[in-house]
Amino acid sequence: LAAVPHYPFKDEIKLRCTELDADGRIFTSVGEFLKSEICQRQGLHIRDLGKLIGGFSINQMPVVIVRPEVILVSLGPHIRALIRSDHIIFFDSPDSKDCVEDSPFVKYLQGKLKMSTEEAGGQPFEFRALEAIFLSVVASLQVEMEVLVRIVSNLLADLESKVDPFKLKELLQYTKKVSRFESKTLLIRNVFAELLSQGKPRAMEAHDEIEILLEAYMKQVEEIANVTAIVKQQMSSTEDFVNVTLNVKRTQLLLFDLRVAMGTLGLSSGAIIAGLYGMNLQNYLEHDPYAFSIMSATVISVSAITFLACSFKLRMLARGTSWIS
Amino acid sequence: LAAVPHYPFKDEIKLRCTELDADGRIFTSVGEFLKSEICQRQGLHIRDLGKLIGGFSINQMPVVIVRPEVILVSLGPHIRALIRSDHIIFFDSPDSKDCVEDSPFVKYLQGKLKMSTEEAGGQPFEFRALEAIFLSVVASLQVEMEVLVRIVSNLLADLESKVDPFKLKELLQYTKKVSRFESKTLLIRNVFAELLSQGKPRAMEAHDEIEILLEAYMKQVEEIANVTAIVKQQMSSTEDFVNVTLNVKRTQLLLFDLRVAMGTLGLSSGAIIAGLYGMNLQNYLEHDPYAFSIMSATVISVSAITFLACSFKLRMLARGTSWIS
Amino acid sequence: LAAVPHYPFKDEIKLRCTELDADGRIFTSVGEFLKSEICQRQGLHIRDLGKLIGGFSINQMPVVIVRPEVILVSLGPHIRALIRSDHIIFFDSPDSKDCVEDSPFVKYLQGKLKMSTEEAGGQPFEFRALEAIFLSVVASLQVEMEVLVRIVSNLLADLESKVDPFKLKELLQYTKKVSRFESKTLLIRNVFAELLSQGKPRAMEAHDEIEILLEAYMKQVEEIANVTAIVKQQMSSTEDFVNVTLNVKRTQLLLFDLRVAMGTLGLSSGAIIAGLYGMNLQNYLEHDPYAFSIMSATVISVSAITFLACSFKLRMLARGTSWIS
Amino acid sequence: LAAVPHYPFKDEIKLRCTELDADGRIFTSVGEFLKSEICQRQGLHIRDLGKLIGGFSINQMPVVIVRPEVILVSLGPHIRALIRSDHIIFFDSPDSKDCVEDSPFVKYLQGKLKMSTEEAGGQPFEFRALEAIFLSVVASLQVEMEVLVRIVSNLLADLESKVDPFKLKELLQYTKKVSRFESKTLLIRNVFAELLSQGKPRAMEAHDEIEILLEAYMKQVEEIANVTAIVKQQMSSTEDFVNVTLNVKRTQLLLFDLRVAMGTLGLSSGAIIAGLYGMNLQNYLEHDPYAFSIMSATVISVSAITFLACSFKLRMLARGTSWIS
Amino acid sequence: LAAVPHYPFKDEIKLRCTELDADGRIFTSVGEFLKSEICQRQGLHIRDLGKLIGGFSINQMPVVIVRPEVILVSLGPHIRALIRSDHIIFFDSPDSKDCVEDSPFVKYLQGKLKMSTEEAGGQPFEFRALEAIFLSVVASLQVEMEVLVRIVSNLLADLESKVDPFKLKELLQYTKKVSRFESKTLLIRNVFAELLSQGKPRAMEAHDEIEILLEAYMKQVEEIANVTAIVKQQMSSTEDFVNVTLNVKRTQLLLFDLRVAMGTLGLSSGAIIAGLYGMNLQNYLEHDPYAFSIMSATVISVSAITFLACSFKLRMLARGTSWIS
User: Fold this and answer.
1) What is the full DSSP assignment across A29-97?
2) Using CA of residue D38, residue D42, residue D46, residue D49, what is the dihedral sign?
3) Is E95 helix (H, G, I), strand (E, B) or coil?
4) Which of A70, A17, A16 is nearest to A43 (CA)?
5) What distance in Å separates the CA atoms of residue E85 and residue E124, rounded to the nearest whole number?
6) Is B43 left (phi over 0), alpha (psi -120 to 50) or beta?
7) Is C103 within 8 Å of D1 (Cβ atoms)?
8) Contacts of E251 in chain D (CB under 8 A)
9) Torsion of Cα atoms, D61 then D62 then D66 then D71, to 10°
10) Three-point CA angle B279, B281, B287, nearest 5°
């Protein structure tokens, strides 16, 4: 029992909180906060806050939590938000130095949020905030996918025309990136699916449209996941192709190696005859006027015959492949 | 937060709209449209239109959306239609130069749509339009499948009788094509399955037949998907076979290579004896009348014995394979 | 839009229709029929008929369609039947020349169908016809499976004792056959499962037994699918084994090749010394009486030392494998 | 149609029936029975009996069938039982020569069955019989799993320290055995799951405990299946490891082979110089007193330089691996 | 039947029981217990106890059993607890020598349990005990995951920069560990999911919060499982990469080997000419003053031409790879 680990929660956390209210005004506060204090002020349970800002780990799973008074959104490293009926708070790592007020996302969001309910077609504040966030998340996935697809397609085309170890190494890096991207996409898809299966958030009960919205964004994420899956299949096809190509190449090289070895064997079998007549022994042909020509011809013939006999055998072995015609 | 991307919708789109009304008349208009305007005129939400004509990307997922007044169909690059109770509009890329009026599909559709409800067995306009589209989509999948199956079967038969690097490269291309085709088929199948699970479209509530229709087309798409899956399995079997064949071939070549190397070793072991007697040193056999014959025989015997000893060892190693009998 | 393919139905089809009525009488008619006419006479929709006899393609999916008045059964190339409350019609390709009347299946079916309802334990005509067909389909799968299992088991046993390229090629053929058989079995299983989930056919509402019947045949088909899955696993295990065996074999051959190359190297390093003394240069040992013996010993020693040094290095490299002890 | 196979049931079967009644008495009868007779006497349908004793094939799927009056249990080659409210009959192959009465399973069962309902905590006869059978089946799986795990673990440990072709062959055998065992375990698990989903057998309606019993045994079977799955993963990891080890080994051997070939090349390039001076041609150094030393040094230098140049090239090629330091 | 194994339960078990009551007091008792006695005292069924402490096997599946009066928790080797409304008993192997009273987990638990219901926000005793256990289990998984991820990431980075057989062997060990960890994580996840699907334990009916608690911990376990799955994918990518790298490496070495062999062949083809003039035969050039120079040039030219011809052939073969430029 003493071996059971025990890790109490750490209560302090460094945060940058950016609040946008219904008039589009921005309030930013940076510093060390107490989680318990945030929870008390926002009426949250410590567990919900943990899921929202849990250490800003990159492995944190995306999540949208709908509570009676508040919607918590954590969809990637940059979007961790808390949406209420009249304001939205973004939690950010205090280390990021970008100027929040000028980012196009915040500008767009300000525009959307400032609208009166009538202008927004009757959509309540939360709804508009959520839609802006979903739009941004899906657009970000889309861009990331397009970049990955373009780079990987080029890499695959290069590898199919020419096997290159550096390109292969790059391919490995992208295999990992595509896997991670696919995993991220599917997790976000699951968030949408879960929201859909839960029924609409209580805060928006009167709006049929939220389901259509969720479905639309889920479809887009599924489309992205689908393209990613096709890219993965093509990477794996190309990897198989490279392996089979190297196999074929090596078999061809082995065939040529054999020919070279056969040449060496042929010359050796001729050379041994020359070697015998090179011995300082009495071979009775020392003074034969034609011996040199005859023996030279013999040596070359033996070499050639050995080589040709081997070639014949090799041709039989290589049947069923198209490399010797 | 400033790192969050933000991509507003682009509103203009180049389109060719082909409208067929209940009398089979065709109206075509080409040009730049505003998505928002189309939506307003057709009573659509911008999101639904986006799913229908989203940039004409080839990665767009097939979808059939049933709204109270309208059915939206996007089933491949050529069929993006909007069906109402008395007309159907096809959206097309304006770049395609085909003459719409003369295509057999449009001719057939005109025939179907011109029928009075009585002639058509009580089928409403939408129903006939949908059926014509489904028929055309399934026929198109069928043809594509048959072409793929025929080419791939030939390729596989060729590769099984003779491993050829060019054929292997072609096989890779078809692996990718078959994967993409399978993915497309399954997505279309899912569209049918989703429609079936939603229950019949509201516009056709009175017709039991729509479910039977959907089921029938889904079965056909499943049949195509099934054949594709079998083809994929056979491609992967053949790839395994090629790899194992190359493995076997290389092992056979290695065996022969060894024999050649053993021949060279045998001749070298004989040659060294000849080499010793070739040294300009006193070997006391200089004048021996039989020395040449004896040494020649010795050299050849040593060569042969070395080779045979190696052959015996090789025979032991090659046990468990059928290449040395 | 002009690129959309369009394929109208072909209406003529060559058929052999074999009708068995409740008295076991057989009527056969061969010839060209119009699909539309058959449909009208039998009260079928053209789509249902298409699923039943669709071109006699071997890729056709098995299907059992239960309509209010009729049951359509298409379970393989030989069984495409239409069952009514008092007769059953088999559709067959007119090219098959077998004598239908004498086949044991038809004999058995005649026996079953001729029974009065009382004799048959209250089972209606359709029920008996269906059971006879299911029995025959399952028996046919069973026989096919047993043949496949027997052949494949022999092949695997042969390959495990001796890797043989011809056997490997045969294995590939059977991999494909087993895959196709598994696919067929699972499709038939799905037909039973679908029938079960639909509830009993309306024509047989009063009979609890139909569900038990379906379940029993489904279990048998599942048993066959299960054996097939085990066979597939064993084929894949054996393929892995062959690959690993060839890998091991090649490593062993490489080790031996190295030994041969080392022998050649050893002899070459000795031979170079002999070669030096074979030069027509003054080596001052020309008349030394022991030079020949000493140099011969030196040459042989250098050869042996070189070989042994290499052997020592090789032994170090081969650690972790059991081939050099 | 004539090609449709038809296989009537064979009615005779050789059986040994062992009956235990509620007093624990045993009646054994061996011989040839008619299936139809058994069915009539026991009130069974021929199909149910077929599932119970179907030819004693080892591929028979496990099954527990609950009928109003009787429970049929077929869970492996040794347990094919028919349980009624006051007795249990085991069907056995008549070839097994074991003495039934003395087996510990039967002894235990006798003890359980002899109890009065009060002693057994209100459990009816069928319940106690079922529990005894389940206990025995799960214990038997447990033992088989433990034996497999122990043998396979040893095999894997051996293979990881030393790649041995005989051990590899053994591993293949166990891969197959583990696959078959996993399949068996999952089929038995499915039997429990199916029973649970059906609700409790009608004969035991009053007893909540049957569900808890089934769940408990199902959990144990799942635990066994889970361990088996882990073992399979480890076998596949080790197989991958062996393949990668052989790959590494072969690359190392190839490196050494290259060194040997480079040595031979070096010596050949030296030898050719010696060969030139060995020609019976006038080289003008015949009487030079230092020529022999100089040429010998040249020959050896050329050999060494050739070898070192190749070594340098090889070192460049082998970068990225840890075998040349 | 006699072949059916039968394994009765063993009733004695060695245990250390640590009891914490609502006042945080600890009672420890070590020794041999009778399972049946524990069951009687705690009002448990023998099967439930078996699932809790079943032999302390490491393969035991995690389980949380909710009975009307008691909650049984078995979540790993260290946490096997029995929770009642006023005390909690931990079962432990008596061999562990740690001092239970001082472990941080027990200290934290004491603190939680000592609180009055008011202090604990209305949470009943069982609830607080469960939460403390879940917190500890998830924290333990988290730590184990982080250690695995850190080690494996380093290993993969090392292998990608340099293929090293020892690192590969280590990778195999971690493949197994990660598989086992993933399996454990998923089993614990399933426990949470099962609890959630069962609805809240009866003992806590009044508390909505238990579901939120379970969901929160399940999400955390899923996050851990998700990271583990990504790590597994990366390990498999790296393994593929190592294999492809070795393939490329071997092809490069084979190319170099060929060059060396071609060099040897070239020298042999030159050497045979020198060999011919080394024969003790009359070559009529014995006294030609330029013969030596001419023949030497010829020998070297033949060697070079042979080598260059082979190089040309090799260059043609190596097309499609980037290693010869």
Assistant:
1) EEEEEEHHHHHHHHT--HHHHHHHHGGG-TTPPPEEEE-SS-EEEE-STT-EEEE-SSEEEEEE-TT--
2) negative
3) coil
4) A70
5) 8
6) left
7) yes
8) none
9) 120
10) 100
In the structure encoding, which two tokens stand for residue C156, read together? 């695997």
Helix, strand or coil, per DSSP, at residue B28? strand
Structure tokens at B161: 């009788």
The neighbouring-strand residues paired with D34 are D12
Q: Which residue has the tokens 């309902």?
A: D117
Rg (CA), chain A: 37
Give the separation between CA D210 and CA D195, rounded to whole angstroms. Answer: 10
Query: Which one-letter amino acid corresponds to residue E163?
Result: V
Query: Is this complex scored with an ipTM above 0.85?
Result: no
Tell me how far apart the alpha carbons of residues B299 and A268 are, in angstroms, rounded to a whole number. Answer: 13
Which residue in the block uniquely carries the two structure tokens 């053929």? C173
User: Does position E96 have pLDDT exceeding 70, yes or no?
Assistant: no
Q: Mapping DSSP to helix (H, G, I), strand (E, B) and coil, where does residue C26 land?
A: strand
> Rounded to whole angstroms, how far apart are CA atoms A235 and D117?
67
**Distances in Å between the alpha carbon of A223 and those of A76, A236, B67, D41, E261?**
19, 20, 21, 62, 55
- Tokens at B51, concatenated: 């799913």
Coil, strand or helix: which one is E4?
coil
Give the residue from D155, D260, D323 with the most C CB atoms within 10 Å of its CB, the best one to mutate.
Answer: D260
pTM: 0.81
CB contact under 8 Å between E230 and A51, yes or no, is no
- Contact assessment for residue C235 and residue C152, using Cβ atoms and an 8 Å cutoff: yes
Residues in chain E: 325
Report the alpha-carbon distance of residue C229 to residue B1 in Å, rounded. Answer: 53
- D chain contacts of residue C121, beta-carbon cutoff 8 Å: none
- Which of C183, C279, C291 is the closest to B226 by Cβ? C183
Give me the residue from E237, E262, E281 closest to A286, CB to CB: E281
Residue B318 is encoded by which pair of tokens? 């090659």
- Residue owning tokens 């891969």: D175
Give the DSSP per-residue string, C212-269.
HHHHHHHHHHHHHHHHHHHHHHHHHHHHHHHHHHHHHHHHHHHHHHHHHHHHHHHHHH
Structural tokens at position D169: 């062959």
Residue E163 DSSP label: B
Q: Name the DSSP letter for residue C92.
A: E
Q: What is the mean pLDDT of chain A?
A: 81
Q: Which two tokens stand for residue C143?
A: 């026989």
Position A324 pLDDT exceeds 50: no
> What would the pLDDT profile of C98-123 be if each residue is shown by its tens digit?
666 667 778 888 887 777 767 766 77
**Averaged pLDDT, groups of 10, chain D, 325 residues long:** 59 79 81 78 75 64 83 83 86 69 77 73 79 87 92 92 84 90 92 78 56 81 90 89 84 88 92 90 88 91 91 81 52
Task: State the Cα–Cα distance between residues D272 and D295, nearest whole angstrom.
Answer: 12
Question: What's the gap in Å between the CA of B302 and the closest CA on chain A?
Answer: 12
Low-confidence ranges of chain B (pLDDT < 50): 56, 200-203, 324-325
Instruction: List the beta bridge partners of residue A64.
Output: A73
Q: Which residues of D touch C271 (CB under 8 A)?
A: 267, 271
Q: How far is A141 from chain B (nearest CA, A)?
A: 10
For helices E209-278 and E125-161, what crossing angle results, to 10°? 20
More confident residue, D277 or C67: D277
Would you say D46 and C209 are in contact if contact means Cβ atoms under 8 Å apart? no
Phi, psi of A318 (to 5 degrees): -85, 5
How far apart (Å, rounded) are the C-alpha atoms in residues D253 and D258? Answer: 8
Q: In angstroms, rounded to a whole number, what is the distance separating the alpha carbons of residues E221 and E134?
A: 10
In the sheet with A26-34, reading across from the earlier edge strand, the strands are: A26-34, A12-21, A87-92, A80-83, A71-74, A63-66
